[in-house]
Amino acid sequence: MKLVDLTHTVDASMPVYPGDPTPELKQTAFIGEHGYNEYCLHAGMHVGTHMDAPLHMIPNGAFMSEIPPTQFFGPGRLIDARGRKLVTDDLLEKVQLAKGDIVLVLTGWYKHFRSSDYYEAFPEIAPEFAQRLVAAGVSILGLDTPTPDKPPFPIHKILLSKNVLIIENLNDLELLLGVDEFEVIAAPVKFRSEAAPVRVIARMPN
Questions:
Q1: pLDDT digits over 26-60, tens only?
Q2: Which residues of the chain form beta strands (DSSP E)?
Q3: What is the pTM (predicted TM-score) of this model?
Q4: Domain of residue 93, residue span
Q5: What's the first-to-final CA gap in the chain, in angstroms?
Q6: Residue 182 lies in a domain
Q7: Structural domain total, the chain
């Protein structure tokens, strides 16, 4: 099987959503001095490639640690939305969505990840697109943008209120173009929190 890593590397220079704390990743022990290496990370849960749990936007919603692991694996569906400023449901007309699918939306915006406009001019998800995902029973919506929407975050609420998880800041989705079948593995850290960092892997036949 071929594996494709769709995750941004976490480092101290990565951008954050406006108003979020700047991440700190620093070495605190050195093998020459202490006999081992160790690093310390201080960051918000929404830095880099991460997953939102219902608690992020829904009162009394589930913590990330409460999500069953079965929801983190599933058949992948790539939606090519390059060139769109708004991702609308017409892109789903020829897509056979099924319960448990993990839908990844390729906009190409990941190429702006360290640019000044990354959190400003990104493509957004239309309500009708999100509602189609909910109706189909998909498990996760993954995006190569920082968020599916802007305040007051209606798309977050449509999805998370129905336990459709959201992955933000995916990387290199263009590597999946032309791939007919693939599986997504997206296992977040088991934090008792509203979100968590996630390593996202696509697995496909060679």
A1: 999 999 999 999 999 999 999 999 999 999 999 99
A2: 2-5, 24-29, 38-42, 50-52, 73-80, 86-87, 102-106, 124-125, 140-143, 165-168, 183-188, 195-204
A3: 0.97
A4: 2-8+46-204
A5: 5
A6: yes
A7: 1
